[in-house]
Amino acid sequence: MDTLVKPTITSLTVLFALALGAPAFAQAQRPAANAQASQAGPGSVSQPDNTTASYGDWTYRCQQGVGTRVCEMVQTLVTNQGQRAPVALIAIGRPSRNEPYKLVIQVAPNVTLGNNAGVRAALGEKDEGTLAPFQRCLPGGCFGEVNLTEDLLKRWRAYSEAGQLRYLDAAGRPVALPFSFRGFAAAADALAREP
Q1: What pTM value is reported for the model?
Q2: DSSP 138-187
Q3: The domain spanning residue 150 has which CATH number?
Q4: Structure confidence by residue, pLDDT tens digits, 25-58
């Protein structure tokens, strides 16, 4: 059963924060950041807590905390039938410059679990894809995660056709959701420039 989806742009810090195991990052850091801003003297320039930029079908988003800045590039997939709720979310980022990039994919919790269960991110229909094994399932979705190699990032930067997310639903039926690489290279370049 193929489900048609249309990629749209939506911020996704919540997905990346959940995937990194820091769901309270924004709440825990905001009071201290606001306190620092209120202590700044007249004429001081403060940096915004959140910044967002759009690159084609990808959104680049950064969130500033006390002494740390977390950035990611994201894409949200929704159905063509006018449904506003997302059917899948894709995020790429890293908690610090010294760590590898991580691909995090969220899909509906109606999935098959077991050995080698996860979601594959593929370059088109013929590519086997990269498996992001499911790490956790919550009422809002199941999360697949995998570290991205530099070679894979290079391949994705050069790709211009539609990609596919593939997984098995709870009944064992294959699900294939197309996603877009339009703007991927520019968003990845912006992510790579982060200190």
Answers
A1: 0.74
A2: ETTEEEEEEEPPHHHHHHHHH--S-EEEEEEBTTS-EEEEEE--TTHHHH
A3: 2.60.40.1880
A4: 232 233 333 434 444 444 444 556 889 999 999 9
